[in-house]
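Friendly challenge for the regulars: who can give me the structure tokens for this chain first? No prize, just bragging rights.
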Amino acid sequence: MSNTDLHPMATGHIPSYVTQADGSDFLLTFMFIFTVLVIVLIGVGYFTLHSIPEKLAHESNHPQFQLVGILALLALFTHNGLFWVAAVLVAGFQFPDVAAPLRAIADAIRSLGTERSEGPAPVQPTDHTAQQEQ
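First reply, four minutes later:
Bragging rights claimed.
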């Protein structure tokens, strides 16, 4: 039997994923590159997903921007979806500013106090006025 003769049970076609005689394995190399690319793409998608609440809050110039960022980071590091949902809700809705009316009242009271102190000085009774009252 010579080297060109095949075994009677061997097929005439050898699939491409069978390792060559020189040791190169095309399928192993392809799967390694494919796996690394898939892991990188999943990581990029994961980080992009977790940055959505911060992007929403930044675009709308949200007053609770720092709170949204903290919730998004907590969701990222704890893998707890509740923090991410809370960050999206905080970024999506504007809470009413209850401090603004209180600030306006405080400013009005403060301005009343400064107007009185800037007004005419109170009249001090002199000795002459005190003698007339007696």
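Helices lie at 26-50, 52-59, 65-78, 81-92, 99-118, 127-133. The mean pLDDT is 80. Your move, everyone else.
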